[in-house]
Amino acid sequence: MSRSPAGLAEAVAEFTGASAATPRRLGGGDASTAYEVPLSDGRSVFVKAAPADMPGALRAEAASLHWLAEPGAVRVPRVYGDDERWLVTEHVAEVSPTPEAAEEFGRALARTHAAGAPAHGCPPPGGPRHAWIGLAPMRDEPAADWPTFYGTLRVEPYVRRLVDSGTLRTSEAEPITAVCERLGELPGADEPPARLHGDLWSGNVHWGRAPGDAEPHVWVIDPAAHGGHRETDLAMLRLFGCPHLERVLAAYEEEWPLAAGWRERVGLHQLFPLLVHGVLFGRSFAVRARAAAEETLRLF
């Protein structure tokens, strides 16, 4: 068990209406310190502390969770409350992945995407335009179409940072720039904006069982939600692996079929997370982004 940080018990009591017992500090997470906190009424909540040097991060996350929960499709932890220092949500006990939960998740994710967004690049309602993906800053601004949004707000800012830092040579960035110039030529580029999780790697796919659940389910956590192309969330699932991924994808396609050739475009939609990882973790990810761009150029 952990000593309760100053202000945590007061925030939990305000947001939940119950008093907090001694918190247990949780591992994982690069940006924030997190705790599981038992409550006097028998519930248990998840509490995240505001990360250092990341203004607005908790506000953005809370807005993302509310927005993803609206369609009532993919499961999202309930938000009890947030302020400048704390985010308090439902705590869901972790369990082992199951094929049945994977299929349910695929269908639910398709329905969440289909709920749509006002524009490509828009933040969730109430969310700041200057948000975060992991430890990296991320700007959300409505754009006229997906090629404009993905090229100017997702790919190009991180390519510039990598080149300016010397992590990626200018010549190595050329295939990535060439892809951005031709995004509108690809099948599916004109899809309407989907309601994206925005950071849907396997670590943010939580296999859990809430109190009262007879069976396990998938819950999505730590979102960086925005309006975008639905293939981007699916490509992120594949980037670092996801249990029962093919079952997830098959169920998704049954619910809302994808545009022809979507599997060949996975590398395109992985460009953004690879570039972000290049900025945060170094050259190996930047080189993978260049390779993904070269592979994408072969589609034209």
UniProtKB/TrEMBL annotation:
Gene3D superfamilies: 1.20.1270.240, Phosphorylase Kinase, domain 1, Transferase(Phosphotransferase) domain 1. GO terms for molecular function: kinase activity. Keywords: Kinase, Transferase. InterPro entries: Fructo-/Ketosamine-3-kinase, Kinase-like_dom_sf. The keyword Transferase applies. The keyword Kinase applies. Belongs to the fructosamine kinase family. This is Fructosamine-3-kinase.
